[in-house]
Automatic annotation (TrEMBL):
Name of the protein this chain belongs to: Phosphate ABC transporter ATP-binding protein
Gene3D superfamilies given in the database record: P-loop containing nucleotide triphosphate hydrolases
UniProt-listed CDD domains: ABC_PstB_phosphate_transporter
Annotated GO MF terms: ATP binding; ATP hydrolysis activity; phosphate transmembrane transporter activity
Protein species of origin: Gemmatimonas aurantiaca (strain DSM 14586 / JCM 11422 / NBRC 100505 / T-27)
Length: 265
């Protein structure tokens, strides 16, 4: 796929010497990674190597576990401004509006309608928002998520009436409704059929340029199809990060080469 020509408005994500774990157990060992502004960075590696933990450290979901700990620096870099995610006094709720997340399995709010699912974050971030503006925000998010035409006539229906692929696009719409700077995606198509997977991949590709995305995936073909940059995480460390085509054709690190060639993992 050709690269998007859109000018990114979103910041880069810079991770420096990030270590994290749970109680006495280390998961990440001083990993460093930069996700370019407005691009898709894929994070690949075998199960248990720390991919999901790395993602959850970026918007501080990691710390929701009582035994979790983290050291290092995670920054949003929007030149000349640099925002330290772990700075003292950081409003974590506001941070998570700037850094949205989509999980492996669709997570619609089961008791809420399609409309209310998408509107949820907007209402939190803009208490008292006018009804017309809320409706506009919901419609715009559903359009961006490629779901509007499928649900426009049933916005008051339960989100649980949607197919799995539609529910995942609904979750993406919910994240997009608050206009995040960064979108974290943790195996977003792992539970979906090939047709739904294709729709999600096309959506993520089309979003390039407007939001910085970090995609965790076990599917190396998926990383090759939609990412600009791919990083290989092994045993809690980034062993190679390079433009995606380069990494899959001429990796420089022997461990990365062994992984992408399917010799382990």
């Amino acid at each position: 796929m050709a690269e998007s020509s859109s000018v990114p408005r979103s910041p880069a994500v810079q991770i420096e010497r990030l270590s994290a774990g749970f109680g006495p157990r280390n998961v990440l060992y001083g990993m460093s990674l930069t996700a370019e502004a407005g691009r898709v960075t894929a994070l690949i590696g075998p199960s248990g190597c720390g991919k999901s933990t790395a993602l959850r450290c970026i918007n501080r979901l990691h710390e929701r576990d009582a035994t979790a700990w983290v050291r290092g620096v995670v920054s949003l870099v929007d030149a000349p401004r640099v925002s330290d995610v772990y700075a003292a006094g950081t409003d974590v709720s506001a941070l998570r509006q700037r850094i949205g997340m989509v999980f492996q399995y669709p997570t619609p709010f089961v008791t809420q309608s399609i409309f209310d699912n998408v509107a949820a974050g907007v209402r939190v971030g803009q208490p008292g928002i006018a009804r017309a503006r809320l409706e506009q925000a919901v419609e715009e998010a559903l359009v961006r998520a490629g779901l509007w035409r499928e649900v426009a006539d049933r916005l008051r229906s339960s989100a649980m009436a949607l197919s799995g692929g539609q529910q995942q696009r609904l979750c993406i719409a919910r994240a997009l409704a608050v206009h995040p700077d960064v979108l974290l995606l943790d195996e977003p198509t792992a539970s979906l059929d090939p047709i739904a997977t294709q729709r999600i991949e096309e959506l993520l590709y089309d979003l390039r340029g407007s939001v910085t995305m970090l995609l965790v995936t076990h599917n190396m073909q998926q990383a090759a199809r939609i990412s600009d940059t791919t990083a290989v995480l092994l045993d809690g460390l980034i062993v190679e990060c390079a433009p995606t085509r380069q990494l899959f054709t001429t990796p420089r690190d022997s461990r990365a080469e062994a992984y992408v060639m399917g010799r382990f993992g």
